[in-house]
Each structure stands twice: as C-alpha cells, then as structure tokens.
Amino acid sequence: QKEVEQNSGPLSVPEGAIASLNCTYSDRGSQSFFWYRQYSGKSPELIMSIYSNGDKEDGRFTAQLNKASQYVSLLIRDSQPSDSATYLCAVIGSSASKIIFGSGTRLSIRP
Amino acid sequence: GAGVSQSPSNKVTEKGKDVELRCDPISGHTALYWYRQSLGQGLEFLIYFQGNSAPDKSGLPSDRFSAERTGGSVSTLTIQRTQQEDSAVYLCASSPGLGPDTQYFGPGTRLTVL
Fold first, then answer.
1. Which of A12, A34, A55, A89 suits A48 as a labelling partner, its CA being 20 to 30 A distant?
2. Which residues of B touch A43 (CB under 8 A)?
3. In Å, how far are A32, A56, A64, A90 from A68, measured between CA atoms?
4. Residue A12's CB: how many other CB atoms inside 10 A?
5. Nearest CA-CA partner of A24 in A74, A73, A71, A91
6. Please, are residues B93 and B104 in contact by the beta-carbon 8 Å criterion?
7. Mean pLDDT, chain A, whole residue set
8. Are B4 and B102 in contact (CB under 8 A)?
9. Nearest one of A67, A59, A75 to A22, comparing CA atoms
10. pLDDT at position A94, please?
11. Cβ atoms < 10 Å from Cβ of B9
C-alpha cells in the first residue's frame, strides 16, 4: 500500500461546477496535510494546508480532513479553465521526518 | 523576496558522465529537499537537509547519487556515471520550519541523459 494514494485521473469537470479531489493516507498518526497545484512543465505550488479535522476554506478552495477515515480532499468551487492542472496531496507522517507526496490527480476543466 | 533558484535549468549529458545540480534555497530557510519527477509521475523524495543535522538520505536511489549542503545554505546534488533512467526533472524545495513544513519549490533542472 502506498503511503499517500490519489486517483491519477484525468478528472474532467465542466466549467463552473465543483471539482472534488481525494487522497487517502496510510499513517494513522499523520498530523499535517497539504494540497499543491502543478501546472504542466512548472513546479508545484502550495494551495492549501490543513491540520485538524473538518473543513478549511480559502476563496474557491475547501480542504476537508477526516483523520478517522484517513482521508483528505480538496473541493474547487466554480471551476475555471485555469484550474486545469495536476493536484498533489502531501502528508507529514507521525515520524515528522519528511513530507510524502501522492502521485497526483490530473484535473481538466472543460469550457 | 527571492524564491528558490536552481541551476542549470536544463542539462543534457552523455551516459556515463557526472553531473552537478545546484539549489539556492530561500534565505533563512533551515530545511532543504531534493525530489525527482519523471515525466507524468509524482514527486520522488531523494534527500532532506535540516539545519546542521545529518541529512536523511533514505530516498537516494543508488550510491551514484550524493548531495551536500554547504554552510546551511546552497546545496549540490551530484549524479555520478549517469544512466538514461536518471533523465527527469530534479526539484529542490526549502521550508522555514524546524521540521517538514510548507515547501517552496524551485523551477527545477531538467536532466536528459543521452
């Protein structure tokens, strides 16, 4: 089992709809969770971080964390073509020694 | 302020040659990471430096790979006797905290081994 798992996609969502990206992790003691966006040919950039159960909202982005289910998600409301990118989930495990990245979900917003 | 910088941006080399990739982290950031990303793949952790502590080398794929960080700032990733499978984008990231934290990535070095 991979430490951080994501569906590779591509996930195709119509413009204006809600895009839902999911991530599961294996280390139950993990405490810190991040979503990075990576445009093709570019470096990852941080979108959201979340540390406690529940929802965290920032503009059109909402991160959701459920530690009991070992599940973290990213919702993008009112999806725009500029949201088309690969979204990487990252987790700091219980050893707090390093961040583990998922392989990413490719999101495509169709006009 | 200035972000993470990496050089060169592109490197083409012949199989068997050695290469050095450089990373300049954000000033004051104590942690520095190297990752490798093959085409269409996720980030593969290579090595992690935290302050003056011994680096976490658990991700280095073979003994052909090594890295150092001088003066707690600039880092160099060295690949000896390059192989075609080493072709990838090598990303460096730094973070300000005492442990793994929000990471700021450099633009990467695209390595092509012919």
1. A12
2. 91, 105-108
3. 14, 17, 12, 17
4. 12
5. A71
6. yes
7. 93
8. no
9. A75
10. 83
11. 11
Residues 6+ apart with CB under 8 A from A31: A51, A92, A94, A96
Given an 8 Å threshold on Cβ–Cβ distance, is A43 in contact with B102? no
* CB nearest to B42's CB, from A97, A98, A101: A101
Chain A contact residues (CB < 8 Å to B):
32, 34, 42-46, 49, 88, 90, 92, 96-104
Size of interface A-B (CB pairs under 8 A): 48
Round to whole Å and give the CA distance between A56 and A49. 8
The answer to whether the Cβ–Cβ distance between A97 and B100 falls below 8 Å is yes
Query: With contacts defined as CB-CB under 8 Å, which chain B residues touch A101?
Result: 35, 42-43, 45
Q: What is the pLDDT of residues B23-37, one digit of tens each?
A: 999 998 989 999 999
Lowest model confidence (mean pLDDT) among A24-38, B44-58, B88-102: B88-102
- pLDDT tens digits along B74-103: 999 999 999 999 999 999 999 887 666 678
